[in-house]
Design a protein that fits this description.
581 residues; alpha+beta; five-stranded antiparallel β-sheet; four-stranded antiparallel β-sheet; 18 helices; 18 strands; 20% strand
């Protein structure tokens, strides 16, 4: 999942940027790491190149340009812009991404989108979290040294002129993110939707607060353990993480927005609503935290869907992929050019992710928990159906506290209160032909009613079986890909077990993976100086074999045959518990 980040800098020392890219730095203080002699420690592996700097180095070229155009002379001036493209850790093993190829992609991106700027492009093979993610740093001087054509993200004449400065606007970031997504699609790399929100929005500040808090907690627990004292919880939580957990607990129990608010109030959290948006005030704060800053999971949509009297609000389409999940009303997915419609189509058209898709029909609430029925969808077939049956929606309904009004879909609105209608609550797309939408939703509902009931536990087991088999096939492909032994001592062929698989796998899952791999000399092992777990086989092993399918258990077959032939007993009277979702 390639990500894209921007940092602006007012530091007049352009050499500091190059030093950061080429020398080791402490991940918490960002200060250079020194050896025992007090000298800087070079990074072990990186690629670096400069653009538009002539024969001189980046820092000297930037300072000369600033003097020539008399720009970037004040303390408050933004001197440089730092962009980071971070690729998915799986791209190296699954898609063949190398440091050299990432460097080429970074240079192409820089030339295409930052022409006229002096720039450094540097690629590192791993991040500070040691997950193995290749990432590219692009550092540009904010000053433009020659005139350039008008690019799609530019909106002022000065954005093209020599001697003027680069502006990173919201529109520019949207454009850059879309270009990164297009690049990943073109190169066959893993990708997430950078243009829509995430269910949890972790800021840079919160990320580092969690890292530092976890480090301090680990040190404190080590001291307590050495002294024979009981240790504290092993996972550190930031204040925002605790608030997210509290909100999720309330959402899982509430059947209405009022009940949701009262449940949070018992935990000391006050919910406030303004212009259709929620914010949360905890006892230790004077300023509330907006739902947008916590993530897309923390608005009132889920609680209101469960309490809504309208049937179309109770039918949802949910899909999950390796790097995230989305949940939309079914009606919105079938309405052309809405965000749910575009998102539902995006992951089929623009990514190669494995997607699991389901329809959810909410049926009610039991003991404070939302209940419903879950229907498995074939995502590729459902995508074709959405594409074929999409309905135009050229108007938008704005819903207020005391009424509603309708306007054109493309017309701007900002959620301000209406003098007559009161507070703004939400908006929804209105189909041009409402009867056609109702007929389509009814047709979808009838098609689901014809499905036979499934075994939920068996479905989960099948998903886990598929995960293990997919990982086994990937390792077999990786073993075949190498012509020479690729272990550090060149005595074994090896392939890393996918970090995504290892995060989900239990011990019995890795045991099953081991049994499916067709190698006599196979072992799973850690390798010194590297992160992760690796599958290793002797260099003389036959690598042309395919995976071994697990044989069905004789005992399980006999038990199943016995259950089929046994006379059926009368069903005991019991309450009808719908499946919980």
């Amino acid at each position: 999942m390639a990500t894209f980040k921007h940092i602006s800098s007012k530091n007049a020392d352009y050499g500091a940027a190059e030093a950061y890219l080429t020398f080791e730095h402490d991940e918490f203080t960002m200060k250079p790491t020194l050896d025992e002699n007090g000298r800087l420690i070079p990074r072990e592996d990186y690629r670096i190149s400069s653009l538009n700097c002539g024969d001189g180095d980046f820092a000297v070229a930037c300072m000369r340009a600033n003097l020539r155009y008399e720009k970037n002379q004040k303390r408050e001036d933004v001197k440089s812009h730092h962009y980071i493209i971070s690729f998915d850790p799986r791209d190296g093993t699954d898609n063949g991404l190398t440091v050299d190829r990432a460097q080429e992609l970074g240079e192409q991106f820089c030339k295409a989108h930052f022409p006229g700027h002096q720039a450094l492009v540097c690629t590192h093979p791993d991040g500070h979290n040691h997950s193995g993610n290749i990432h590219v740093h692009i550092v540009i001087n904010s000053l433009r040294i020659y005139e350039v054509p008008l690019l799609p993200y530019m909106d002022r004449p000065a954005d093209t002129r020599e001697g003027c400065k680069h502006r990173c606007t919201n529109a520019a970031m949207e454009y850059f993110k879309s270009e990164v997504m297009e690049m990943c699609h073109r190169e066959g790399l893993y990708q997430i939707d950078l243009l829509n929100g995430s269910k949890e929005r972790i800021t840079e500040r919160e990320y580092w607060a969690a890292k530092k808090g976890q480090l301090a907690l680990d040190k404190e627990n080590a001291v307590r353990e050495a002294a024979g004292q009981p240790t504290k919880p092993t996972k550190f939580e930031t204040d925002k993480a605790k608030l997210r957990r509290t909100i999720r607990q309330a959402l899982s129990q509430a059947g209405s927005f009022d009940e949701f608010s009262s449940l949070l109030l018992r935990e000391g959290v006050t919910v406030k609503e303004s212009r259709g948006r929620l914010s949360y005030l905890t006892p230790d704060r004077t300023k509330p935290i907006t739902a947008r800053k916590l993530g897309d999971d923390f608005d009132k949509a889920i609680a209101k869907a469960a309490a809504s009297p309208h049937r179309e609000d109770k039918t949802l389409l949910w899909f999950c992929r390796p790097s995230g999940t989305h949940c939309f009303r079914e009606r919105d997915v079938f309405l052309k050019d809405t965000a749910p419609h575009n998102t539902w189509r995006f992951y089929m058209e623009q990514t190669s992710d494995r997607v699991l898709a389901y329809a959810i029909e909410l049926t009610g609430k039991e003991r404070g928990k939302i209940k419903g029925n879950l229907y498995e969808l074939d995502y590729s077939k459902h995508y074709e159906r959405v594409k074929e049956k999409e309905l135009p929606a050229d108007t938008v309904k704005l819903i207020y506290e005391h009424g509603e009004r309708v306007q054109e879909a493309g017309r701007y609105f900002d959620g301000t209160p209406d003098p007559q209608l009161g507070k703004f609550e939400r908006f929804e797309a209105v189909p041009n032909d409402p009867d056609a939408l109702q007929s389509l939703l009814q047709e979808e509902r009838r098609s689901r009613e014809q499905l036979s009931p499934g075994d939920f536990k068996a479905h989960i087991a099948a998903l886990r079986d598929g995960l293990i088999e997919t990982e086994a096939r990937r390792i077999v492909r990786e073993m075949k890909r190498h012509y020479e032994p690729n272990s550090p001592n060149k005595t074994h062929f090896m392939a890393e077990l996918s970090p995504a698989f290892m995060r989900l796998a239990a011990t019995k899952d890795t045991d099953r993976l081991f049994s499916m791999l067709p190698y006599k000399t196979l072992s799973f092992s850690k390798i010194e100086g590297r992160h992760g777990t690796y599958a290793l086989i002797d260099k003389g092993e036959n690598r042309d074999r395919e995976i071994r399918k697990p044989r069905p258990s004789i005992r399980a077959q006999l038990k199943a045959d016995k259950a089929k032939t046994a006379p059926k007993k009368a069903a005991a009277k019991t309450k009808n518990h719908d499946m919980e979702v």
